[in-house]
Specification:
The complex is a heterodimer of chains A (363) and B (325). Chain A has helices at 22-25, 29-54, 69-77, 92-98, 102-109, 143-157, 175-186, 206-209, 235-252, 280-290, 292-302, 308-331, 346-349, and strands at 84-86, 163-168, 191-197, 200-201, 204-205, 225-229, 256-261. With 363 residues, chain A is an alpha/beta fold. In chain A, a hairpin with a 2-residue loop joins strand 4 and strand 5. Chain B is α/β, with parallel strands linked by helices. In chain B, 38% of the residues lie in helices and 17% in strands. Chain B starts with a strand and ends with a helix. The chains are: A alpha/beta (363), B alpha/beta (325).
Amino acid sequence: MTKKSAPAKKPEVAGYNARQAPINAKLGHDELIALYRDMVRIRRFEERCLRSYQQGKIGGFLHLYIGQESIAVGCVSVMGKHDHIITAYRDHGHALAVGMGMNEMMAENYGKYTGCSKGKGGSMHYFDPSRNFWGGHGIVGGQIPLGTGLAYALKYKGLKGAALAFMGDGAVNQGAVHESYNLAALMSLPVIFIIENNGYSMGTSQERSSAGPSLAQRAEGYGMNWDIIENGHDVLEVRDKVAAALKLAHEKSLPSVLEIRTYRYRGHSVADPDTTYRDKQEIEAYKATKDPLMVFQNSLLAEKVLTDDSIAKIDEAARAEAETSAQFAEASPFPSVEDIQKDVYWEADNPADRKSQGTLFFN
Amino acid sequence: MPVISYREALRHAMSEEIERDPNVVLMGEEVAQFNGAYKVSEGMLAKYGPQRIVDTPISEAGFIGMGVGAAMLGLRPVMELMFFSFYTVAFDQIFNNAANIRYMSGGLINCPIVLRGPANGGTNVGATHSHTPESIAAYHPGIKVVVPSNAYDAKGLMKSAIRDNDPVMFMENTILYGETMEVPDGEYLVPLGKANILRAGTDLSIIGHGRAIQMALKAADLLKEKHNINAEVVDLRSIRPLDEETILNSVKKTNRALYVEESKPFCSVGAMVAAIISDKAFDYLDAPVKRLTSIDSPAIYSMPLEKLQLPNVDRIYQAALETLK
């Protein structure tokens, strides 16, 4: 992490090899395979979600993470016990990476009572505070002040932890994001703002939406550390750079902005036909050379960590897990009409401990 | 019993809760070093230090959102809005995040935050600084709304609000900050959702909240003096939760109701209360429920006119007489 004054593109460190970085050099076969497996699980889950959406089982919006798997998996793999995470609505990858189950996630997408939010949040609003995962947020950039607040609480309580606050490249022009940058830098909060830059804020490319040489470089205006991870498709590079930012947060309580270059294969949401703002060649070119699963798979094959046989087994298991989750969701009950008014007020849900009086609901 | 101001009552409440619970922190613009724009937090930085009394930049969306995030992780932030009107700048953080987080997480998260500050007109600061958003706030399930009209309630309600596990919007009043009354030393709580009958009566129920209900007491004196009318005056204190029982019992006794408030008339708290009365006590009514609000326009700057735009003793007195026609 360095403070830089000029170019949008940070110079590559000569001879840098993410695999040789200390945090990755120590990884054993099982750990490497686990990283690969988690990425495969995200992709198969997303593909199964798409099918369910097309079958009319999932309502509203469905923002698929396909193409960006290396980021959620890489980031979460370097988090410690007191580190927390919050993201926007493209949240399935992060949820799986922190250890949420496909069943509760798919059931949430189906609007079922067995969903992680009892069918009250939907695809965009997953939560699991027991795994330090604070959503799943629908308004672009709206979660960034919350992530800053998580870091504030960690520092206040004297815990050696940090908050990883994820956003897309479309969020960087929201005022709440800039206000959060200022607060984090001003108060020295242990927060890492992670911009998953997939090049498009919905259907508007970066050059059509964001002024300035790079998104991360805006951190300089706040005297904050920043870095760009050019190879966001490389899970090991993501790990190395995010671990460095975490170290700064843990040891010096300093915030950072990380811009991770990535790409999404599907439209902004499934409702986006993806025909107006980029051509298919661009997508195919990325898939052919930078697909995060393929790139990691190839390097693990070369290292003989994976074999064709183990790759097939991992894939088969992930497909089966996703299929099971769809069956689980299908078989689960919807919430009841009574459930509509539960989980609104803590006091209403805990009547024995209620201190207030009077009417809370008006029908 | 000591006589203290509304401002001091708030300060005592926050101080007692800061001493009681290490997770309580007061945060906002000018609350610490400047001692509070309206001196509510005067002396608190010196007493409790910068960990507990925290100055923020002018950045409402940022710092209110930060407070919401900190509350999710177990802090009990008390966030001062220098003017409550500035809630508009933090609207998304309040109503999308604080209000919805429990629901969207299926009850996994709660958000014990207090947003407090003065929400009133009458000080010639124009439309941007004179919002009275209690009905807008109370419209949102997940949010609680409190509007104390006197020092005793300000203290007891503030202590309850800070201990509450749901987000509470606590609307104060700059004109009331200096008003004094007897307030007991030390610990007491006023529960949210419990209305207070300020004056018992038999001929008419004047129901309301905030500074307007204090004016209603004076109007009630005039009604008695000039017409021998005994008005009952009910201060709601809390908008959501709402003490329907006290409202309905009063109306069933007097058979006439006038709602007074500083808000604008459209979808105001009085509109909601009138709907509840017509729904649940229609047969007891001898006259339509009347409402007395600010005159329906943005808050006017001009000093003598703003006094006329807001509820005042004479307007309340006249409205009461019309209800009794």
